[in-house]
Design goal:
alpha+beta; 2,3-Dihydroxybiphenyl 1,2-Dioxygenase, domain 1; ten-stranded mixed β-sheet; 18 strands; homotetramer; eight-stranded mixed β-sheet
């Protein structure tokens, strides 16, 4: 596969992944899950939406739960450097035939919403209401002590094209999985803007869909505690995969499903990638340690299920990547 | 100093340290500290008392907070094997001129209360109301996840005599600190019944007083979290000593003070001592790693302050042991 | 099933599980695994045997690797209170038609070796050469910091009978799994002498075989590190099950296989059981949280494979217990 | 104090703190300390120098130990984006009367060495020989598992001026401590380039000197283990401060001294700071939780001792900042 070059002068400056807006069918049940069990902090709530954030986040929210009749990933959000970057983004989208609108979601400043060429619904903003971070409010810590939204992972029908699009926007490749052989196709890509392993991961599969949103937690002990808490409080079936160590990104991980089936990863211990000469790490699709360093395969649901975006046409994956499933 | 021999046929069978009854001057404040911050489970409460326990304890309570006008350690409790052991204890005390009475404290069966020859107020019982343990109720875990009452540490004016008395009752010495030289006096002794490092530690000092009661927690991470929580919730001044590693018992420790100044230790990682041929470990008073393996000395308050027993005559320590103080 | 009563006056006093003697086919490979990867301390070694122990153990060895042509569990060892207990054991075995011999294995005192009525090869001893414990020799810590041999788990063709035999010797039941219904048969039993969840677990299966020997480690972090180390050093295939949380015993566990396939558990966070009125906890065979609180089933090998004892006739399990297998 | 604005178009692009060159008087002793006890990986060594790195670092070295007759901090190194940035730096220094030279230290590409206006000896480079990172070589992990060089902390006689100089080079302020009152002077500043709390901290004191170099470790457990290892292996006196939690940066920390007295921090759990609108956090000099969230003061040595740069004139601090010392 062709590896995209690092782009150091992107058309506009995306700083990092910022927030996710999830459509949920039972707002009370979803809030209980994310607030009491996972341990996110509820910053605001009304009858139609709940706004949550992690302990290190200054921004008003990194997760919005929206009451809806159908569960979906409503959109994912990235923060740009400043207001000028929003205008530059608008120009870029206009020049490239990508439709966008402006909006002012609650607690956010001017927000540009667009659907990328692959159907992913995304919004960009530069300012959001601020709140003091809660790092030193240890008395408020709950659940697994989620600290920040770390990244999104999306199911894309065409990984190569999707990766190339985001690489052009300045996302830099850190790790990738591809088929062996001279014409091996890429099956998954990890790209970042903020200097760690990823802000955005792209996984081969029926898409566009959200595979998962991930929060970073301080240590593996917090992840283990979440397993125990979920098993003790009626969420046993929601423990989907892990805990374990990814070969990719070296992260200690756990995947859980929320009451609507939206997938949440809890994750710790990756590494910095800020160097201009940081080289992407290749994984063969046939290396079992890629998915799980300790060898345990993922369940089939992990490869097949995800959250659709609303009113978006779905396509099957361009090819069927070889995976090792626990059946 | 003469080392007491292990006694394998004591006059009655004490199984382990069981519970502490603390007189507190502000029941609401004390409950908030132990329940919300430390994380003990409140099993029962009324206007005059609160009953708490750790997550692995089947017994109704291991700590009783009693509303009182003066803060004190009301008494400490040990569990005996069965009802017959209470009768054997009564006989032994009668033969040895130790006064005792029978009582039936709430939730406990027949209870023998006595004051030992050194002024310590103690009660023995064989049965207490049972509750299912809470180990797998991870959804209820709070604070530092205290799991069980582990031991008592008492200030005794005469360590040698106090140790000899309890050795005669079957307590086995595991570690001790003494002065160097052929006539070195013992300054502290750690004795057990249940097979770990101690149920009862005896420290040289003005006595009789309770130095501290200790709860065992799963890992050092739980101890660190308690430091963070206390610093975040108005208890900064109540962090007295640690976290650190004791040379003695190898335990990772933290000492905190409750709203009345009663000292609580949180502790993990000691070892088993069930062997008949387990030999006590000697520490020189001049070895700084005894108190803290990492070298940091304890503050003066730790050597001087403790909880008196009510209506008990106090005596100064028989000698002044050399300690290393952080001044 | 009939639950055995706690026996407080056994015919002789077994203190605890002590050591395992494993026949291994490649002494060098086995030593490398247990010393470098797992982190046991090699106390002595020659061309035919290696003697290892955990960091808190005063005794010369808790594991003996013996060079042999066929892999087997040569025998398991329990420590008794004193020399008199060995004589009492001999008398008891004579009266009950159990054959025994005396031996003096290296570094041990007088040792009584017997084969129990179910074919398990066991030795009892009261004294072994002592070594200073290594708890405070943190500079020697390796691998997952194994601290002590905690227990044995054996495959027995007849769980009820085997449990009854050891209960008569003073082992006390702490937890057990049985079939539902009025005539539900027992499928597994956990019994202790030293005051924690178990010294000996008995599992339904073709027997007599050793299912596993378990070492206690300080925290779950040590277990996770062993996973990482094994995955990094050629032992990926030897990671058999876990890490996870047992419902039974509340322990955080990992099962690995040594170069001969002998199964080793690393384990932490169980609880104390010294009370005379400690009541056994029943698990239904159909409760998935019994095996793994977090729901992940064990692989088939875990239910089927074990280490035979040398020259011992094997029998199939008396019945086929229902298990949940990851297939 | 005047707060420097974030500079988004610096004269050249420093990416991050990279490496430290320490002059040591006993190369063998220093290597033993950093390799065996701390756990850095030795990548190369000869009779005059040892090159070390952390497990996530791709670069050949982040620490160079240089055999010397006098202990000193020889220089600290920053990585720039590319070769062009080195030329831009040269131009900037020429225009601003800062003397520099070019050098090619072993394993590094073209390197610009300069002494800043306050006497700090610094080098800039864009390329260094690469090595595969060691994150997944868990079999090589030792000591406290240091993962990357995180930052430098320097003693500056004039904090405000030094901070302003580096702010002009693009370093962004994240936290700072200042005197109370309208004319309160700044006593310490934390500045970053790579998106976490700091690449460079500036502390009021006799300078120019290195206060410490810091490596990031995965969890607090690794820090505690280093305390235990140092106490067990003859480095008890080298444990200077901690473990504890900084209010500033929220980091769990430990300060140790190497055989020459160079100070090393081990540190974990800070937060991301990539936002353009990230606002610096102010600490009052009189807030004790700034230094240590848990209240324990630092020893006097921590405020007074540091590593001089060779052949550099030293000046006393411009003012005496109020500190809380453990005396």
């Amino acid at each position: 596969m062709p590896i995209p070059k690092h782009v150091f002068d992107p058309p506009f400056n995306i700083i990092r992944s910022s927030h996710v807006v999830l459509d949920v069918t039972d707002l009370k049940a979803s809030r209980a899950f994310y607030e009491t069990t996972v341990g996110l902090h509820v910053e605001d709530a009304d009858d139609s939406a709940v706004y949550l954030r992690g302990s290190e986040e200054h921004q008003h929210h990194s997760m919005v739960l929206r009451k809806a009749t159908t569960a979906a990933c409503n959109r994912i959000g990235f923060k740009v450097g400043n207001e000028g970057d929003i205008d530059k983004a608008a120009s870029f989208f206009s020049e490239n035939g990508i439709r966008y609108t402006f909006a002012e979601p609650p607690f956010q400043g001017r927000t540009l919403q667009f659907t990328d060429p692959f159907g992913f619904r995304i919004e960009l903003y530069a300012t959001m209401e601020k709140r003091p971070h809660l790092l030193r409010r240890y008395d408020l810590y709950r659940g697994c002590h989620p600290q920040r939204l770390d990244h999104f992972n999306i199911f894309a029908a065409e990984v190569q094209g999707t990766m190339d699009f985001y690489a052009r926007l300045g996302f830099r490749l850190t790790e990738y999985a591809e088929e062996d052989g001279p014409n091996g196709r890429i099956a998954a890509a990890w790209l970042h803007r903020k200097g760690n392993v990823h802000d955005l991961a792209i996984t081969n599969g029926k898409g566009p869909r959200l595979h998962h949103v991930c929060y970073w937690v301080p240590t593996a002990m917090n992840v283990l505690h979440l397993c125990d808490v979920m098993a003790s409080s009626g969420y046993l079936k929601n423990l989907e995969r892990g805990p374990g160590r990814h070969g990719i990104s070296n992260a200690f991980f756990l995947y859980v499903r929320d009451p609507d089936g939206h997938r949440l990863e809890l994750y710790t211990s990756d590494y910095f990638t800020v160097d201009h000469d940081h080289e992407p790490l290749r994984w063969s699709l046939t290396d079992p340690r890629r998915q799980t360093l300790w060898g345990a395969p993922a369940p089939r649901s992990w490869f097949e299920e995800g959250s659709p975006f609303p009113a978006t046409e779905m396509r099957e994956a361009a090819f069927e990547a070889q995976v090792i499933v626990a059946d």
